[in-house]
């Protein structure tokens, strides 16, 4: 027999096939509603595992939960490797390490010796850790004071999203991001030929534009002079008419 269909009781003209279609649609909607409920629950549980206050995690959307979770996992992997060397020359263990270490400047040695004090001083600003791809793994909460952007908003995003494109290459060099990873990190690289061509064309057009501007100014001055002469001529005519009237 056919499954119970309330629509048949309301409107007997409804066919059995239409009733079955309605039942399938209702079943599909219930299944989709159930999937969404399970998905929302998993995102809610995942957000609770983040090292953030509950007042913040309860307001996160799904994309933010995924972004922060990935950043947190990267940060855990980074922290599990121990304290990294602060100078690229200290990386690797080979027979040249002592020689390379001896060539360090006194400023670098003093910086590493008083590293803790330097970090405490920098807390008057903000501290951040970036991955090899240029993404924020961690950034201190004080960033909101100086940039007006929250810690949650910046974590997991690319540092190049907040830097002028003209400074991308320089910033990538300071961060030690390898050239083949810069495009993936969002670093905007401007070809030197294009920039030189643009500067050359702008310089080439400057004298001509200046001459045109000077010519325009001269024409304006001439027009103004003619206008003043016309006004003077009109004034003379008026005075002549007044003199004629008196006579």
Automatic annotation (TrEMBL):
It is found in: Nucleus. The keyword Transcription regulation applies. SUPFAM superfamilies: HLH, helix-loop-helix DNA-binding domain, PYP-like sensor domain (PAS domain). Keywords: Nucleus, Repeat, Transcription, Transcription regulation. Residues 203-223, 232-247 have a biased composition (Polar residues). GO terms for cellular component: nucleus. GO terms for molecular function: DNA-binding transcription factor activity, RNA polymerase II-specific; protein dimerization activity; RNA polymerase II transcription regulatory region sequence-specific DNA binding. Residues 23-76 form the BHLH domain. Residues 193-202 have a biased composition (Low complexity). PROSITE patterns: BHLH, PAS. Its main location: nucleus. It holds the Pfam family bHLH_HIF1A. This is Uncharacterized protein. It comes from Esox lucius (Northern pike).
């Amino acid at each position: 027999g056919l499954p119970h269909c309330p629509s048949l009781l309301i409107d007997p003209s409804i066919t059995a096939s239409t009733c079955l279609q309605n039942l399938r649609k209702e079943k599909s909607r219930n299944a989709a509603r159930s999937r969404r409920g399970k998905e929302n629950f998993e995102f809610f549980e995942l957000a609770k595992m983040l090292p953030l206050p509950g007042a913040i995690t309860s307001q996160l959307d799904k994309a933010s939960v995924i972004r922060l979770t990935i950043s947190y996992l990267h940060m855990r992997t980074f922290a599990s490797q121990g304290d990294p060397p602060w100078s690229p020359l200290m990386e690797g263990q080979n027979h040249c390490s002592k020689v390379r270490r001896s060539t360090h400047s006194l400023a670098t040695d003093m910086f590493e010796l008083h590293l803790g004090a330097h970090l405490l001083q920098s807390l008057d600003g903000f501290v951040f850790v970036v991955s090899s791809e240029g993404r924020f793994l961690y950034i201190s909460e004080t960033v909101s004071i100086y940039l007006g952007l929250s810690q949650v908003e910046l974590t997991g995003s690319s540092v190049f999203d907040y830097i002028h494109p003209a400074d991308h290459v320089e910033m990538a060099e300071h961060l030690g991001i390898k050239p083949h990873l810069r495009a993936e990190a969002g670093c905007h690289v401007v070809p030197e030929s294009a920039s030189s061509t643009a500067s050359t064309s702008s310089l080439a057009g400057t004298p001509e534009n200046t001459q045109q501007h000077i010519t325009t100014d001269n024409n304006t001055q001439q027009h103004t002079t003619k206008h003043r002469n016309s006004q003077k001529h009109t004034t003379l005519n008026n005075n002549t008419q007044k003199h004629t009237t008196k006579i």
